[in-house]
Design a protein that fits this description.
Elements (H helix, E strand, L loop, with lengths): L12 E10 L2 E10 L10 E7 L6 E4 L1 H9 L3 E2 L1 H14 L1
C-alpha cells in the first residue's frame, strides 16, 4: 500500500524526461508525471520529445501545454528546464 502524505501536502507534479529507444540509442519523451513515480513509470501527458543522438539534436515540445502545466504548479526538472530554454532562445 502506498505511503500517505501528511494532510495538506499533495504529491508534486513534475515535467521530466522518460527514456525510450534502444541500448546506446537514447530517445526521450518530455512528460508530465507524479514526482513519486519512477523515471520510466506511467505519466499523465506527453508534451514533447528530445533526441540527443541526431545531428543536430532534435527538441520538440508543445509550448502551450508546457505553459499550462507550469501555471497549475508543475515543476520542471533541471534537464528539461535547460533543453526547453535552449529551444525557446533559438526561436526568438
Amino acid at each position: 500500500m502506498p505511503k500517505k502524505l501528511p494532510k495538506g501536502l499533495d504529491a508534486m507534479t513534475v515535467i521530466r524526461l522518460t527514456r525510450m529507444g534502444r541500448k546506446k540509442k537514447p530517445f526521450y519523451r518530455i512528460v508530465v508525471t507524479d514526482s513519486r513515480k519512477r523515471r520510466d513509470g506511467g505519466w499523465i501527458e506527453s508534451i514533447g520529445y528530445y533526441n540527443p543522438v541526431a545531428n543536430p539534436k532534435v527538441i520538440e515540445f508543445d509550448k502551450e501545454r508546457l505553459n499550462y502545466w507550469l501555471s497549475v504548479g508543475a515543476q520542471m526538472s533541471d534537464r528539461v528546464k535547460k533543453i526547453t530554454q535552449k529551444k525557446l532562445s533559438e526561436n526568438e
